[in-house]
Design brief:
The chain has about 230 residues and is mainly α. The protein folds into 2 domains: about 10-80, Winged helix-like DNA-binding domain superfamily/Winged helix DNA-binding domain (Arc Repressor Mutant, subunit A, Orthogonal Bundle); about 85-230, GntR ligand-binding domain-like (Four Helix Bundle (Hemerythrin (Met), subunit A)). The chain has helices at about 10-25, 35-45, 45-60, 75-80, 85-90, 95-120, 125-140, 145-160, 165-180, 180-185, 190-205, 210-230, and strands at about 65, 70-75. It has a two-stranded antiparallel sheet. β1 (about 65) and β2 form a beta hairpin. The chain is elongated and about 60 Å long. The protein starts with 9 loop residues before the first helix and ends with a helix. About 30% of the residues are buried.
Length: about 230
């Protein structure tokens, strides 16, 4: 039964229940799910929350609803988008280390290319903003401030890269980052020790040294990745 004991809306809880069932491997792509009426009875909720949850699952391309054929699990590995990542990682509250490793690897590879492009395309204003944020990182009074500066630094660098796809990816990542900020806090553990890496990246971007910028960001992301994965061991 799905209840509202933690303050979440009933439809949110139904969504999480169905999402986990679809993404956990309990069902294979193409498997037929119970009808919405059956789900409402099984979960002890009304039809409205079930309909709302199913609509969200359709938007994420996790399930497919066809008239006369009912509801089936979609091949989300083939058709799903970046929005599925958060539900894979945090479906049960605590992220799996292996999945987080995949996410951090992708983050590192993307940020290296972002840094390379930023060094080539940045405006003087963007270069100055990166230098300012890097300086603020060295003086950040706490982890919360450091996290926000880390996010601001890479958001500015993504903008400086001039690549719209990277900008949109960053928008999606930001939502996950902020919603689960405590999980991601190890990214900025001992942030004053990391400040030099931000500064070197900012200096390289300002100077237009693409290889140096990519190397500095790659090293920073590598350290952050290592610390985050160690926190999940």
């Amino acid at each position: 039964m799905v209840t509202q004991t933690d303050g979440a809306r009933v439809s949110d809880r139904v969504f999480r229940h169905l999402c986990q069932a679809a993404l956990s491997g309990r069902y294979e792509p193409g498997d037929k799910l119970p009808t919405q009426r059956q789900l409402a009875a099984e979960l002890g909720v009304g039809m409205a929350p079930v309909r709302e949850a199913v609509q969200r699952l359709e938007q994420l391309r996790i399930v497919e609803v066809r008239h006369g054929d009912g509801m089936r699990v979609a091949d989300w590995r083939r058709d799903g988008g970046l929005d599925v990542i958060a539900h894979l990682l945090f479906g049960e509250g605590r992220p799996e280390r292996e999945l987080m490793g995949v996410l951090m690897e992708a983050r590192r590879l993307v940020l290296v290319e972002v840094a390379r492009l930023a060094a080539i395309r940045r405006s003087p204003e963007q270069a100055a903003a990166l230098a300012r944020i890097a300086a603020e990182m060295a003086e950040a009074p706490d982890a919360r401030t450091a996290q926000l500066l880390d996010l601001a630094f890479f958001a500015e660098m993504v903008q400086a890269s001039g690549n719209l796809v990277f900008v949109l990816v960053m928008n999606s990542v930001r939502q996950v980052y902020l919603e689960w900020e405590k999980v991601f806090q190890p990214l900025v553990a001992e942030h004053r020790e990391l400040a030099g890496h931000y500064r070197r990246a900012a200096v390289a971007v300002k100077a237009g040294r693409a290889a140096n910028a990519a190397a500095a960001v790659g090293r920073l992301a590598e350290i952050q990745e290592s610390r985050l994965l160690a926190s999940l061991s």
